[in-house]
């Protein structure tokens, strides 16, 4: 078994990111798409903290704090928008929310 | 020992992420997502970042996942499961993700990564605080303005229209 | 993995006894395991006592005697406070042998997982609680954040229970509880930031040491912080007057409606253990933990560094922590049997429009106190800031108070 290096963490994050992409592309429920987005945020954070550990430099950890901040705000607004669409039009399927289509 | 823990955590994270995107029942998907978040927190502990690990548990597993489950539980009777997914969409998504994954892994394997000696403590709180209020003061303040904007926006979206009550 | 701060914990007492028989490495592992088992046993016994205490206090408040029959007769004849202290063990044995009913349409896996996770979360949060000088399992350098973060997972178990029961009462209880706990977590964390700021550390042991060093407990400069933390933690553990998620008169029993037997006992256990946990955190962070007023001993101010600690001083410190924690627990029970339940909109208004601004004010005041302390090097700075804060909040509240409604000309 080879010792764990930076590449191990990067590959894990890459696979996690791809799973998130897959989820975001195939899911139709808006909340489920938000969940997949969170997976992608997490994989980015793994990268940042791993860089920070192996460089060693504190910048990566700082950036992961900002990413967590953005993720928290994003999910709050996202769920608020989804709930408001649901309340007004009784829809949650992203393919049916197409009022703005020309 | 640390290596074994890494592989166990990696397995946990990938399995739960896969079951999250595959689950028919969205509540089970949410639970799998939380498992994934907790596994990532374990990874941060392995990377000597206990502060980020605690933040991960507090914010991701304790708040974000709860908001997502909340959003799902309030809307679930519109769409119970997604069993009528189209095959073409599935295949396209799978293909795109596989290509993405292949390219990323190839690039990661080919690039020469510069690494230094591993430190004992990468998220020393004093150091973090000093950096946030000196070198990273602008992003820090922008983040606070951003959070305020998000708070105001969420309230604006959620509140009822002012005016006379409907007849 | 560097997550442990410097001071060794409770297992360091056991390791020297085990090391000659097992070797150094296994001895430490076995010591850790023994300490964990000890914590588990402690939680169970403590909860039994707390349940008995709650019944007795409610009885005293309502002019009854409470459970009197289970236990030695001669004890019960002396005073109501000695009667029936075997009632909770008897109840626990009854719950243990009851049938576990699972609703037919329940979502099985989350239904079984919910009581287990709520108890596991509660147990893990106890790990960082310092019960006395050297009486802790682990002194993590992010201890307080760890305790708060782990406790925030409780809401997930409640959501799981509410969803998996497949019953409208459970679902409503779970949703209400999620909204309430998310809202009250924010003032709770802001209240805890004040002592963290003053101590300059997240480790619970370091926070107690900082209070010893300054010569004041943190409830002096941030009395408001203590009050806000205490009120929001009552909301966090879903106790009356914040028991909207399990309101008996509206929702049967909220998210525990469909549970029976041992699984119900787990929820019950976790609720009371959480009650002690939040009181213990408040006692540690705001009320000086194991410190004793007007009594200075190196064993208390520098635990772990004293060569030959005196055991009686350490036991005294342990007792001091217990008195403070139990004082807060008794106040929680007193509140429960005195105040009526809040309405959900009142609950949200109170949390967002009153507690959060006051928590911000408290945080600013604490920063000011640290600055004053560094400038003048006297503990009176903390007293001055504390008094100014309390007086100003009282004045602001009086100024903002709405005038009584107009009742017509006299």
Number of strands of chain C: 0
Low-confidence sequence ranges of chain C: none
Global morphology of chain C: globular
Structural class of chain C: mainly alpha
- Tally the beta strands of chain A: 0
Q: Your description of this structure?
A:
- The complex is a heterotrimer of chains A (about 100), B (about 170) and C (about 400).
- With about 100 residues, chain A is mostly helical.
- In chain A, about 75% of the residues lie in helices and about 0% in strands.
- Chain A has helices at about 5-25, 30-55, 60-90.
- Helices cover about 75% and strands about 0% of the residues of chain B.
- In chain B, helix 1 runs antiparallel to helix 2 and helix 2 runs antiparallel to helix 3.
- The longest helix of chain B has 26 residues, at about 50-75.
- The mean pLDDT of chain B is about 80.
- With about 400 residues, chain C is mainly α.
- Helices cover about 65% and strands about 0% of the residues of chain C.
- Chain C has helices spanning about 10-20, 25-60, 75-80, 85-95, 110-125, 145-150, 155-165, 170-200, 205-215, 225-235, 250, 260-285, 300, 310-335, 345-375, 380-400.
- The mean pLDDT of chain C is about 80.
- At the A-B interface, helix 1, helix 2 and helix 3 of A face helix 1, helix 2, helix 3, helix 4 and helix 5 of B.
Task: Please supply descriptive tags for the structure shown above.
heterotrimer, B: 167 residues, mainly alpha, 6 helices, 74% helix, C: 410 residues, 16 helices, 67% helix, globular
Describe the protein's topology.
The complex is a heterotrimer of chains A (about 100), B (about 170) and C (about 400).
Chain A: H1 6-26, H2 30-54, H3 59-89
Helix pairs in contact in A: 1-2, 2-3
Chain B: H1 2-22, H2 26-46, H3 50-75, H4 87-110, H5 125-133, H6 137-158
Helix pairs in contact in B: 1-2, 2-3
Chain C: H1 11-22, H2 24-61, H3 73-78, H4 87-96, H5 108-125, H6 143-151, H7 154-164, H8 168-199, H9 204-214, H10 223-236, H11 248-251, H12 261-285, H13 298-301, H14 311-336, H15 344-376, H16 380-400
Helix pairs in contact in C: 1-2, 2-4, 2-12, 4-12, 5-6, 5-7, 5-12, 7-8, 8-9, 8-10, 8-15, 10-12, 10-15, 12-14, 15-16
């Amino acid at each position: 078994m080879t010792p764990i290096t930076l590449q191990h963490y990067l590959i894990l994050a890459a696979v996690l990111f791809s799973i998130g992409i897959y989820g975001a592309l195939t899911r139709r429920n808006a909340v489920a798409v938000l969940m997949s987005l969170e997976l992608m945020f997490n994989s980015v954070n793994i990268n940042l903290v791993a860089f920070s550990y192996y460089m060693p430099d504190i910048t990566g950890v700082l950036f992961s704090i900002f990413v967590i901040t953005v993720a928290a705000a994003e999910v709050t607004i996202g769920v608020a928008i989804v709930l408001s669409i649901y309340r007004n039009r009784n829809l949650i399927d992203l393919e049916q929310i197409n009022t703005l289509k020309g | 020992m640390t290596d074994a823990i890494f592989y166990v955590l990696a397995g946990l994270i990938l399995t739960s992420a896969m079951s999250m995107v595959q689950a028919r029942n969205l509540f089970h998907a949410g639970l799998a997502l939380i498992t994934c978040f907790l596994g990532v927190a374990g990874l941060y502990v392995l990377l000597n970042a206990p502060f980020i690990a605690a933040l991960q548990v507090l914010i991701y597993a304790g708040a974000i996942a709860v908001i997502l489950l909340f959003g799902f539980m309030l809307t679930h009777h519109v769409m119970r499961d997604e069993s009528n997914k189209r095959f073409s969409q599935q295949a396209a998504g799978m293909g795109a993700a596989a290509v993405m994954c292949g390219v990323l892994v190839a690039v990661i394997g080919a690039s020469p990564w510069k690494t230094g000696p591993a430190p004992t403590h990468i998220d020393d709180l004093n150091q973090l605080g000093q950096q946030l209020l000196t070198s990273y003061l602008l992003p820090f303040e922008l983040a606070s303005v951003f959070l305020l904007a998000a708070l105001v926006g969420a309230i604006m979206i959620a509140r009822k229209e002012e005016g006379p009550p409907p007849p | 993995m560097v997550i442990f701060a410097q001071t060794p914990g409770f297992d360091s007492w056991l390791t020297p006894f085990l090391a000659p028989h097992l070797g150094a490495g296994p001895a430490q592992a076995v010591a850790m395991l023994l300490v964990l088992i000890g914590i588990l046993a402690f939680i169970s016994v403590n909860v039994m006592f707390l349940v008995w205490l709650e019944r007795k206090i409610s009885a005293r408040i309502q002019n009854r005697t409470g459970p009197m029959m289970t236990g030695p007769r001669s004890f019960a004849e002396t005073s109501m406070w000695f009667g029936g202290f075997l009632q909770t063990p008897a109840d626990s044995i009854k719950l243990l042998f009851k049938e576990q009913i699972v609703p037919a349409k329940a979502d099985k896996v989350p239904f079984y997982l919910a009581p287990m996770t709520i108890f596991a979360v509660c147990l893990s949060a106890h790990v960082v609680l310092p019960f006395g000088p050297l009486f802790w399992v682990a002194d993590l350098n992010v201890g307080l954040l760890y305790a708060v973060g782990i406790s925030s997972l409780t809401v997930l178990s409640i959501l799981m229970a509410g969803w998996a029961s497949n019953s409208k009462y459970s679902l409503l209880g779970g949703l209400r509880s999620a909204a309430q706990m998310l809202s009250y977590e924010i003032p709770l964390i802001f209240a805890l930031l004040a002592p963290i700021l003053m101590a300059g550390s997240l480790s619970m042991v370091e926070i107690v040491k900082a209070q010893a060093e300054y010569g004041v407990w943190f409830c002096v400069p941030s009395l408001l912080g203590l009050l806000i933390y205490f009120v929001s933690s009552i909301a966090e553990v879903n106790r009356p007057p914040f028991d909207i998620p399990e309101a008996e008169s509206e929702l049967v029993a909220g998210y525990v409606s469909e549970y029976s037997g041992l699984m119900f006992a787990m929820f019950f256990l976790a609720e009371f253990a959480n009650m002690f946990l939040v009181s213990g955190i408040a006692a540690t962070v705001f009320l000086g933990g194991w410190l004793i007023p007007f009594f200075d001993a190196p064993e208390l101010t520098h635990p772990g560094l004293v060569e030959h600690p005196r055991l009686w001083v350490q036991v005294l410190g342990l007792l001091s922590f217990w008195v403070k924690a139990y004082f807060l627990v008794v106040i929680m029970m007193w509140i429960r049997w005195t105040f009526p339940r809040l309405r959900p909109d009142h609950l949200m208004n109170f949390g967002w429009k009153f507690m959060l601004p006051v928590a911000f004010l408290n945080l600013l005041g604490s920063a000011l106190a640290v600055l004053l302390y560094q400038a003048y090097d006297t503990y009176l700075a903390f007293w001055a800031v504390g008094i100014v804060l309390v007086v100003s909040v009282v004045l602001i509240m009086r100024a903002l108070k709405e005038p009584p409604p107009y009742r017509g000309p006299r």
